[in-house]
Design a protein that fits this description.
The chain has 145 residues and is an alpha+beta fold. Among the domains are: 39 residues; 45 residues. 54% of the residues lie in helices and 22% in strands. A four-stranded antiparallel sheet has the order 1-2-3-4, with no helix packed on it. The longest helix has 38 residues.
């Protein structure tokens, strides 16, 4: 019985070309899956952003007061309203005129340059390593004396 099973496995003829073709097929399938995810994500994001652009409402500014309490300036048509948003309630506080608003350039809207952040991180790590190396070198000199 054991000989029959061994002959069956050896005689199956599973070649390396079949495994290479399987690998290529899986890679193509993986790339197609990634592309589908990318396009579906873009489509869904576009559908969610469309109503915001054509709306009469816009949140102009938000200030977080505590973990679940916010003050927001909301533009409704041509009016600006300050509202308090809490866990279970939303309250209208006051109405503002456009002249009362201060338009401050939001630094968060500009995406930071990844290269600059990466270089700053490496510089911090390099300076940390250099200071530790210098301390270790100084300590070994003192120990020798």
């Amino acid at each position: 019985m054991a000989k029959v099973t061994a002959v069956f496995l050896i005689g199956s003829g599973y070649s390396s070309t079949n495994s290479v073709l399987e690998l290529i097929g899986l890679l193509v399938l993986f790339v197609l899956l990634l592309a589908a995810c990318y396009f579906v994500t873009r489509f869904v994001a576009g559908k969610q952003m469309a109503p915001k652009n054509a709306s009469n409402f816009a949140v102009m500014d938000t200030l977080r007061i505590s973990q679940n309490k916010y003050l927001q300036i909301v533009k409704t048509g041509k009016k600006y309203i300050v509202i308090a948003v809490c866990k279970d309630t939303v309250s209208v506080l006051t109405e503002l005129k456009e002249e009362e608003l201060l338009y401050i350039k939001n630094s968060e809207s500009e995406s930071p340059d990844f290269k600059e952040i990466l270089m700053k991180t490496f510089k911090k790590n390099d300076s940390y390593e250099k200071s530790n190396t210098l301390k270790t070198h100084t300590q070994t000199k003192e120990n020798r004396k």
